[in-house]
Amino acid sequence: MITLDQLTGRDLDGTEIAAAVQALLADTVADDTKADFLAALARKGETVEEIAGFARELRQRAVDPGINPAQFGGVVLDVVGTGADMAHTFNVSTCVIFIAAAAGIAVAKHGNRAISSKCGSADVLAALGA
User: Which of 17, 53, 58, 72 could anchor a disulfide with 106, C-beta 3.0 to 4.6 Å?
Assistant: First the structure.
């Protein structure tokens, strides 16, 4: 098995991207190792091929939430933010769900507690009792 350490600091091909995604999603790989790999990838600068490859690999592993859009008028909006971008930005994605819902749009929202900001989506929703 290819380790994240072996992939650090250079452009990745499709096979290596698949291995990286597998490692990033594995419970057996330490969070520090994952963070180091992602930080090194960001420092190197992601190529278009890498971004597309990671997106493709992650979509293949995505879990279908089992929502039938027909039950909600044909559209369910999935709203996410950047989260943990270290830019200390305002959590706007959680505000957007209430605006969209007020406009009659069915909304699916997921998120986490704060990592780099004062509040993540889970923090806001918990504070509101949702």
Answer: 72
